[in-house]
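Quick one - inputs below.
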Amino acid sequence: MAEEEASRPFAGLSDVSIPEDIPVEGDISVPMGANKRDDEYSTLDEPVKETILRDLRAVGNKFIHVLYPKRSSALLRDWDLWGPLLLCVTLALLLQGGAADSDDQGGPQFAEVFVVIWFGSIIITLNSKLLGGTISFFQSLCVLGYCILPLTVAMIVCRIVLVGGSGTVSFVVRLLVVTASFGWSTFASTAFLADSQPSNRKALVVYPVFLFYFIISWIILTFSPSH
Amino acid sequence: MASKNDPFQFQEFDDDGSLLGANRDAVTISIDNDVIPERQKKPAGLYHVDEDEDFSGDDKTELLSGQRQNAPFWTFEYYQKFFDIETHHVKERIIGSLLPWPGKNFIQVYLRKNPDLYGPIWICITLVFAIAISGNLFNFLVHLGRPDYKYTPEFRKVSIAATAIFSYAWLVPLGLWGFLLWRSRKTLNLVSYSFMEILCVYGYSLSIYIPVVILWILPFEWLRWCSILVALCLSGSVLVITFLPAVRDDHPRVIVATMTTVVVLNLLLAVGCKAYFFSKSVEPDHSPAAAVVSVIKTTIST
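Output:
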């Protein structure tokens, strides 16, 4: 009698079988399931070109998001620091070759540009987190670094303009280009960063970003090549 | 049926204010230590402060700030409590440092037990870059038109400006705090400021120099000296009004010496920055016209 009762709860299960196409999580292997696991290869097996292209595509995708800033969270979701590093190195290299006769009172050296950009980004990120922002440390670094893209483009344009001469006309052109890209950078980064703060502290977070891009714009504008 | 004098009937008591009003020297014990003593000081008339318009809005922040936990200083949370401010607080504090009023002690009126690090840090950084950029522009305008002048961005001056400003804004408060601590052991002082509050006052008192430094680009020497004087008066009076209550009960010589030191250090900073970044180092002009002019001048004078 006891055995009957014991077997009765499981009586209805005797004819159940697990169908093959239910997705099973984890490492449970379905005994009669499909052998799909052998067909997918892990990223270790793919060609190197694929790996590099995947990262490059991600970086390029984020560049497009910076150039057309809408309120999307793509930059924030998958952060990476390749783009900021690339932009920082490009900007620092472009700012070389502009020292005056004496090294003493020249423009910023390579290391100084690096320090200004990275140290400045870290200070702004710490400031935003101390004010109670919901964005994470690396996400904020990622956004600030990617929004240097318009300023790097402005630097390229400035160097091209300076090849033609360094008179008043070229200065006016450079001023306009740098001002426009400064506005673009600040607008793009606040579009991503300002949402993570409560509304009574937004200005406190936006002002350091404004100062940061202003200083970089100033460094770009005062670049004077040595002939 | 319950009568009026029923001892078991629930009775309503009046709140603290009117109970205190009956006996002004009474002390209430409450958990929010930071809030009640300040309200007690108002009827006692120790501080003549015009707090009416600001007080009602800041009740909630005061209550919240009175319940800060004491995190150790190497954790993130410790510093988070110094960023517990809003945009309008920062605006009020900056305006309060630009327009000092006798009797309106900056620490009492604007800080109110909530010193922040946001103001000192960002005002100092802004001032550093304002000095470097304005000095560079000034140099450029002075040498404009000279054929042998080659424009340089002078990026090295940023680090010099940063050293000067940050050591004034962070080391002088440290020294002043230590000095006030030492004096308060000797004389019983009612007023004592914490290190963060002194740091805050010094940081906000530098905010007047940002527009002044930008004004120094213009090529008028009299304008520069006038603006230094005005800025020194405003900035110095903010500091003097703040620190006078802290040394008031001390020996008169100590009071005079302290106040003089505070003002003189401020003056040294302003004049030093002006002399280093905005000095007109006139180089001899190499153009032939100027050489002729100088020859004519020397022949006339002899």
